[in-house]
Amino acid sequence: MDLNVWKTNEYWKTVSVVVVLVFAVLATLTYALRIYAVRISSGKFKVEDYLMGIGLLLSYGATVATILNAFHGVGVPSKELPPAEARSLNFGSWIIQKFWPTSMAFIKISIIFFLRSLFGARPIVRRCLDVLSVIIALWATAALLTNTFQCWPPSYYYNKNQTGHCMPGQKQFFMAMGSLALIEDTVILLIPMPTVWTLKVRLRQKIAVTLILSLGSLVCIFSLLRITEFRSFVLTDLSSSSALESIFTCLEMNFAAICGCLPLLRPIFRKFLPSTNGSRSYGQGSSNQPNFQSGFLSASSRNGATQFQKLSELNSATAVASKVKGSSSERNETKTSSEIELKGIEMWTSVRQDVRPASVPDSNE
To answer: Which residues form the Rhodopsin domain (predicted)?
Structure first.
């Protein structure tokens, strides 16, 4: 191996290991914080929490394969590598293709369950999310099976020293699967936006929630970069052409996990940052004033439990608050406060009643 080839190998080895490992750790820490947020709020894990955990575990498979490829000559032309290392690197590329669709499917469906709990009260949103879940499951199954049996026998993909063949249009298939994944990411990103912008809240609050949900655009960026890399993908020289593609694949999964967990970290900020505590009032007499607190989608806690409410519960809660405000009773001064929460929207209603006691007749009279 000459000096230039060695430098190329060292460069891609360092980039692959550092970048992939750093963001895998960040994704793991973000998920750990999500678990902690659930523990200090409701203490009850939901389906989306388990799905996100499974997706993160599957992403580790692609991360490990990418790191191993870094030590088997990634970035170096196959002809410059010993046959054993070339086969190991091709096998790593084959393994990454198995973990990518399964990991992304679990992470995306986890995010869909979360969005369904927020905006599922609207039938059209709920139906769109349900249909999208089915499409993602079918896409992941098709991608997994085709990636596995694109060559026959399957081992022919990474070991050409045997009799076998591969299907035509492999590169086009990879680009098609990546394009479908990008479309799914975009739809997930756009579905909640109309609902957010129809809420009767302040403009800055709508912008804040939109920015939180728009973090998913980072996933779309890495998905697009991954598709672009397939244009220069050389199936007969995976060692030199798969370096960036493998990195973008891992980053796509890691950022999907990170963006899916960030909106659920609100309880941690409420616990350790008093400035984000939603218990502050807007003053007496102020009613029906929603607030997206600190830009995080959350609901205030009742008895230590943080729970999300559906959109349909907002109207009934508002009606109850209005009835309380309009009623009168012969009591001393009272003050009640009700919190109406909707995924980061909190509404306080204060009712102040002053009732003067009836005059007491004189004892002589």
So the answer is: 33-271
